[in-house]
Fold this sequence. Notes:
Blueprint: E1 2-5, H1 9-21, E2 26-29, H2 32-39, E3 46-50, H3 58-67, E4 76-81, H4 85-93, E5 98-102, H5 106-119, E6 128-131, E7 134-137, E8 142-145, E9 148-150, H6 154-165, E10 171-172, H7 173-181, H8 190-202, E11 210-213, E12 217-220
Parallel strand pairs: 1-2, 1-3, 3-4, 4-5
Antiparallel strand pairs: 6-7, 7-8, 8-9, 10-12, 11-12
Amino acid sequence: MIWCVEDDTSIRDIEVYTLQSTGFEAEGFPDGASFFEALKFRKPDLVILDVMLPGEDGISILKRLRASHDTQDLPVIMATAKGMEYDKVQSLDLGADDYLVKPFGMMEMVSRVKAILRRCKPKQTTNLLRNDGLVINLEEHIVMIDNRRIDLTFKEFEILRLFLSHPGTVYSRDQLLSDIWDINYAGETRTVDVHIRTLRQKLETYGSRIQTVRNVGYRWEKTND
């Protein structure tokens, strides 16, 4: 499903018609308010979003989409006015996937839509590490606990990735320093202890699965699958 957010009725109608005639499901919205109201109930595969809209403009709408966990990866093509270089640059900086400069041809629009959808095909789930309700997406660098996203630092993420990749394996503090930081890292092993402590806290109930092996280091509790 492709959604077209465009206040000009004639342009919106031809966008929707062209998309439908080339095999897509498509729907049009005249402004941000109607767009966000529909978004409460369903999610499109891609949005063609005009910059110049009544009320909330397209740039503001794009910011809201990228700030929300539910829509941060929603593909968006911005429609900008001819000569508005700043709108194009700002759109791309804020996370737009592509842009069209008005007036644009309908076949160009369809071509851009197809290209973005090809690029944004769902990734294979082989990039996931799971431990019950704890899931690491290695490709997107995301950690979820019971379908809730949690924020980890880069080092915390790498420690967790190592543990979940090798459950039951004991890692000494020196090994963790070498593997996670750098083989030439000159820091103290206390650095590892601090990161383990904060990681346990962030993992909530799963934090207890990081076990301390006295006088050695740490391991992830191995469970029977």
